[in-house]
Amino acid sequence: MQDFREEAVAFHSDGAHIAGTMALPKRDGRPPVVIWSHGYGGYGNVLGAPLVKARLIQRGFAFLTIDHRGCGASQASPRGRCVQGIESVLDLFHAISYVQSRPDIDGQRIGLVGESHGGATVLMSGALDQRVGAVVATDAFADGHAWLAQMWEKKAGTAAFDRLMQRTAEALRTEALTGIVTHVPVPEVIPYGETELQLVHQLWQDHPLWSRDASLATVESIGLLAPLSVAARLSSRPVRLIHGEDDSTVPVEDATALHKAIPGSDLQILPGVGHGVTFSDRSSEVLDLIAEWFEQSLSEQRVPAMTSR
Hints:
By secondary structure, this protein is an alpha/beta fold. 38% of the residues lie in helices and 19% in strands.
């Protein structure tokens, strides 16, 4: 028998209809809530999200997953589909407002957790929104523009990244003059390596809502997603960073740079682990690290573990 109940939810973010799922523990009282931010091109209820949900529900937390605008079942923004980056930060602002509207949630105890692009998103959201009580970021990049440039240069050289920036500038001019947005296959924005590209093709096959195309506006939006630039503003938040030492998608150096820049942050580096720590071979350890952090930071008293019924 499930020890939680789930419901489909929806709210609006800058006019876009956002789809989500709220999971609530079957117990009395108003639980604290943790909001999940998914990786680039994904959506709420895949990969690490179900695992994190199960562990946090067991510890007595509510858990909200959302499909960021233009991803999964959510409506696209006027700038097109899969425009993540800074727009995902705005989605989390509205998700926080949504959970605070619910009488069955303790809107004063809100945590954010995200993976990869979602990790950077929760860091920046936590820095800019005083309503956030705690943050856990896994596999997060420190600066979206620098990360994208580094990935392109590693795969195809500086000239390839320069061409992408030129195409983006042309697309932005067209958008400004006509309102028409330019979409391209996601690998023309994110320069996956061969191993990562094989995974993306598998994700497309296994998860029909996984984004195949993206607006070129996302290049600009990712460039604006730079948690390192607002790191000092996270000094009043409990922040835990979790990163695989062997991550070939987001280098572990991004995690160490963030740790140095965020006063009082906690850094957990996992040797022998690559990108996607929540669903890696050491996921159970990672899930404990996430749950323990929110127990310590979102509860005046420790949230007791839930027993199965």
